[in-house]
């Protein structure tokens, strides 16, 4: 992965080797003897000690080097790559965090492909690094001087955005995070891949059905043509990615699209948003199943295992959604207070496509009282709660609301603490892209 950092060249003092392997004492001794070594670089690539430490995840050495005020956190190697770019390339999250804390500039471009650290994180699929860089961008000078959404859609020398690279390299979690952060799903490249390619073209080429699912759910246009006039369906066919082609075939059923233009969607709190996103991805998976049956592709999705144990009989009638009588009410409409399930909420809000003549989504109203929807929130549960209600209540206060339908929770959520044991938010977001731990990994931890 990435570039090899060879230290064998011109390392007679042994510094670079010691840095690479994290021998802090050796490094300290060498620098004590000859402080000028700290500014030495490797002969060919011109890597500094900080580059080598960052690329190899030697966090102690990174910390030690950064304490020296004469060390520039943005030192450049031969290809104008910063230590931060190398850390993002190699997925060394602690080094990424430390460098950003030391005010490393996230808006530097290398001389190889004109890429930033955000491109590197997306290309190599390091979700945690991508997340850290994005959150730095929200608060740093970049947001003020450049604008956050401009940064998310930053182009490399060939016109590729981080979204293009993540889609091409089959990184569905990064694709999801970028889209969720405002990456433009319809942007096309200049010279990267084939001119005029969208992320959907590149995902079709890469053959990642998870990336395609994400892109379609965010409104990617299956009819968009690249500069040679090809739609993504043709690209998938050409590269023999049959399952991808089936979903991209303009004549197959349209997926539900995340209704981001609606005001109350952009105002959703994290919990309500997670519920709706799950419902959307589930609904699309059901559609996919029907489409993919035709090409004999068995989706590795988790839907089957998770839905299999639904203990619907234990859910009392009063908790059920009054529209479908199938799911538990998880979403509350405000201001009127009516409740329904996430699936029905989406069915009311999600259109396959905005009306092409007006390019507008009509604002939906509450299906019960026809009043305007000001906000959607996670449904609160009544006071005289049964066990199930309690589970729901716990759920609605959860900061990482990534379990499936609420009624799945009743199975084992007594150990709710298990949720905080889930490795990272990133992993959970991955649920939307078809890679998730089995439910008991989330819930049943002691
Ligand atoms: Zn319903
Ligand atoms: Zn209402």
From TrEMBL:
It holds the Pfam family RING_XB3-XBAT31. InterPro entries: Ankyrin_rpt, Ankyrin_rpt-contain_sf, RING_XB3-like, Znf_RING, Znf_RING/FYVE/PHD. Keywords: ANK repeat, Metal-binding, Repeat, Transferase, Ubl conjugation pathway, Zinc, Zinc-finger. Its EC number is 2.3.2.27. This is RING-type E3 ubiquitin transferase. ANK repeats lie at residues 45-78, 79-111, 113-135, 158-190, 195-227. Residues 321-370 form the RING-type domain. Gene3D superfamilies: Ankyrin repeat-containing domain (1.25.40.20), Zinc/RING finger domain, C3HC4 (zinc finger) (3.30.40.10). It is an enzyme of class 2 (transferase). Pathway: Protein modification; protein ubiquitination. It catalyses: S-ubiquitinyl-[E2 ubiquitin-conjugating enzyme]-L-cysteine + [acceptor protein]-L-lysine = [E2 ubiquitin-conjugating enzyme]-L-cysteine + N(6)-ubiquitinyl-[acceptor protein]-L-lysine.
